[in-house]
Amino acid sequence: MKTNKNIPCDECNDGFYEEVCENYTAITSDDNKVLVRNLRFKRCTKCGDEIFSPQSSKIVDKTIADFTEQLRTREIELLWEDLGLDQTAASEALGLGAKTLHRWLKGTQYPNRSMGFYLRAMVQFPEAFQWVKERAWRKKNRLSQSNTSTTFPELFSQLEKEQHNEASTKLEALRNFNPVKEFRRISVK
Ligand SMILES: [Zn+2]
Questions:
Q1: pLDDT (tens digit, 9 = 90+) per residue, 124-175?
Q2: Which of 108, 114, 133, 169 has the highest CB neighbour count under 10 A?
Q3: How many angstroms is it from 63 CA to the middle of ligand 1?
Q4: What is the predicted pLDDT for the residue at 110?
Q5: What is the tens place of the pLDDT at every residue in 29-86?
Q6: Phi, psi at 23, each rounded to 5°
Q7: Structure confidence by residue, pLDDT tens digits, 74-118
Q8: What is the whole-number distance in angstroms between the Cα of residue 120 and the centre of ligand 1?
Q9: Span from the CA of 43 to the centroid of ligand 1 (angstroms)
Q10: Closest residue by Cα to residue 169 from 178, 181, 177
Q11: Taking Cα atoms as reference points, which of 174, 170, 166, 171 lies closest to residue 182?
């Protein structure tokens, strides 16, 4: 197995790759550092370029997956089943591109750490999923987030103005309202 001990480096074309076995620090997609203990890989004696066998890569991937509590393909399938919609509808509801889920299920890409947490929460709390699905935050403030604003910007600003005026009028009426005066008027009658 030591036959190709002297692979020339294709980075610097000067050194050779030398097999090392040491603690290796991998960087996750979220910029977290993960320590992989006693990893075997090759490093150029001159420029320090590192190469990994498929087996070593697997060990790194596995360590990162454990550290980030990564969702496995099967878990992702189950999550989507639990969401109770077909895959496309559930992806749409969660704001994911249709291809993203496909990649996750194929195992060519994984949800990152925070996305994994988010997905787990969505399944654990159906009302939260419902809330996201409905984009409920848009309902909070009248028309401001509806499509009207983008489709008809002029109409929207007009509506907003009217709404604002209406609110000002009500506020004005409230300020001028004197409960004592009102009471007297009624009692006289
Ligand atoms: Zn090199």
A1: 999 999 999 999 998 866 555 455 555 556 665 666 666 666 666 666 666 6
A2: 133
A3: 27
A4: 84
A5: 778 899 999 999 999 999 999 999 999 999 998 898 888 888 888 889 999 999 988 9
A6: -70, 130
A7: 889 999 999 988 999 999 999 998 789 999 988 888 888 889 999
A8: 43
A9: 8
A10: 177
A11: 174
Distance 8 CA to ligand 1 centre (A): 8
pTM (predicted TM-score): 0.54
Give the distance (Å) from ligand 1 centre to CA of residue 50.
9
Per-domain residue ranges of the chain: 17-67, 73-134, 140-188
Q: Are strands 17-27 and 50-51 parallel, antiparallel or unpaired?
A: unpaired
What is the domain class of 17-67 according to CATH?
Answer: alpha beta
Give residue 11 CA to ligand 1 midpoint distance, Å. Answer: 5
- Amino acid letter for position 26: A
**Distance in Å, CA 49 to ligand 1 centroid:** 6
Q: How many angstroms separate the alpha carbon of residue 33 from the centre of ligand 1? A: 24
* Antiparallel, parallel or unpaired: β 33-44 and 17-27: antiparallel
Q: Tell me: domain 73-134, CATH 1.10.10, correct?
A: no
